[in-house]
Amino acid sequence: MGPPFRKTTGATAVAGLFALLLGACSVVTRTPGAADAAGNPVSTLIPNQTLNLTRTVSLTPETLLLGTALFWAVDPLAPNWQLQRAPAGPDRVRISLRKKRFTSGGEGEAGQLFSRHAEQLAREGGYSGFTVMEYTEGIESTLPLAQRVAQGVIRFDR
Question: Whole-prediction pTM value?
Answer without folding.
Answer: 0.57
